[in-house]
C-alpha cells in the first residue's frame, strides 16, 4: 500500500507522535529516558526547534518547528532504537510504522496542543499535576537553567509562571492527535459534510456568522489544514485562518 505524503505546515510547526511497536514499552529504566533526552538535546538547533516533549512509557509526544522534520525525527528514532535493542538484546523494529504528525498553523491550536501533551501523565493517572511529571518539558518554561527547549515565544502568552500553570491545568475535552491517529479526511469527504450541513444552499448564501460556525465545525471534526479548508469551501485562507479559532 503506497505511503501518503506527509502534510506540510505553513508555519513548519508540528505535533509529532512516536509509538512503540505493538504498544510495547520503549522506556523501562531511568537510563532509557535520559538517553532519549540526550538525543533530543543533540538534535535541537535553530533548524530543529523543540517546543515541548512528553515521554510516556510506550509513546512520545513532541512539538517541533523544522523544515526538515522527517530527517530530524528519523535520526532521533533510529539512534534510540539501535541503543535500546543493543541494551535489551533484542532485534527488529522498536517504533510502530512511521512517526505521526499533524500541522499546527495558528497560535491558539499551538497552546491547546501544549496543554494536551503536558496533561498526558495526569490523564493517564500517573500524577495529579502536570508539573509533577519528571519526563516532560513542563519545568523548562520558567526555569533559570539553560535548556535545549525553545521557550522564547511563550513570553508572548504568559508573563508569569502562575498564568502558565493555570492554563495547563484547565480540563480540555478537545480532540487532538493521539497514539490512535485521527482519521485523515480527503477533500470529497469534507465536501460531503458541507453538503449535509448546507442542504440546497451554497456556502456563500450563508451569513458570515454561519460561515464562521461552519469553518469551526469542520476544523473540530476533521482537523483539516487552513489550505484544505480553503480549497474545499472556496473561502480565502485569510478568513479560514481567523474564523477557525
How would you describe what is shown here?
The chain is 41% helix and 10% strand. The protein has helices at 30-43, 69-87, 107-118, 120-123, 161-169, 187-198, 208-222, 226-233, 237-243; strands at 13-19, 49-55, 59-65, 100-103. Strand 2 (49-55) and strand 3 form a beta hairpin. Helix 6 crosses helix 8 (226-233). The mean pLDDT is 86.
List keywords for this structure.
245 residues, 41% helix
Question: How do the strands and helices of this protein lay out in sequence?
Answer:
Blueprint (H helix, E strand, L loop, with lengths): L12 E7 L10 H14 L5 E7 L3 E7 L3 H19 L12 E4 L3 H12 L1 H4 L37 H9 L17 H12 L9 H15 L3 H8 L3 H7 L2
Antiparallel strand pairs: 1-3, 1-4, 2-3
Helix pairs in contact: 1-2, 6-8
Broad shape: globular
Give helix % range: 40-55%
Major sheet, described briefly?
A: 4 strands, antiparallel
Enumerate how many helices there are, as a single number: 9
Strand and helix order: EHEEHEHHHHHHH
Strand order of the largest sheet: 2-3-1-4
The rounded distance between the terminal residues' Cα atoms is 35 Å
Low-confidence stretches: none
Tell how many strands the DSSP assignment holds.
Answer: 4
Q: Which structural class matches the secondary elements?
A: alpha+beta
Strand portion, in percent?
A: 5-15%
Amino acid at each position: 500500500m503506497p505511503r501518503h505524503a506527509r502534510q506540510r505546515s505553513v508555519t513548519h510547526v508540528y505535533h509529532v507522535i512516536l509509538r512503540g511497536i505493538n504498544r510495547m514499552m520503549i522506556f523501562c529504566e531511568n537510563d532509557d529516558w535520559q538517553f532519549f533526552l540526550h538525543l533530543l538535546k543533540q538534535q535541537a538547533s535553530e533548524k530543529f526547534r523543540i517546543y515541548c516533549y512528553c515521554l510516556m512509557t510506550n509513546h512520545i509526544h513532541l512539538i517541533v518547528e523544522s523544515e526538515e522534520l522527517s530527517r530530524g525525527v528519523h535520526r532521533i528514532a533510529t539512534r534510540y532504537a539501535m541503543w535500546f535493542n543493543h541494551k535489551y538484546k533484542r532485534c527488529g523494529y522498536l517504533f510502530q510504522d512511521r512517526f505521526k504528525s499533524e500541522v499546527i498553523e495558528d497560535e491558539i491550536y499551538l497552546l491547546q496542543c501544549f496543554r494536551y501533551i503536558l496533561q498526558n501523565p495526569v490523564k493517564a493517572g500517573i500524577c495529579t499535576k502536570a508539573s509533577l511529571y519528571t519526563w516532560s518539558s513542563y519545568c523548562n518554561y520558567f526555569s533559570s537553567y539553560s535548556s535545549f527547549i525553545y521557550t522564547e515565544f511563550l513570553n508572548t502568552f504568559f508573563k508569569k509562571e502562575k498564568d502558565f500553570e493555570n492554563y495547563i491545568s484547565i480540563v480540555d475535552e478537545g480532540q487532538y492527535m493521539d497514539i490512535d491517529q485521527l482519521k485523515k479526511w480527503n477533500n470529497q469527504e469534507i465536501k460531503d459534510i458541507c453538503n449535509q450541513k448546507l442542504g440546497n444552499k451554497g456556502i456563500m448564501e450563508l451569513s458570515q456568522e454561519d460561515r464562521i460556525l461552519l469553518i469551526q465545525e469542520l476544523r473540530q471534526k476533521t482537523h483539516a489544514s487552513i489550505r484544505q479548508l480553503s480549497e474545499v469551501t472556496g473561502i480565502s485562507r485569510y478568513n479560514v485562518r481567523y474564523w477557525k479559532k
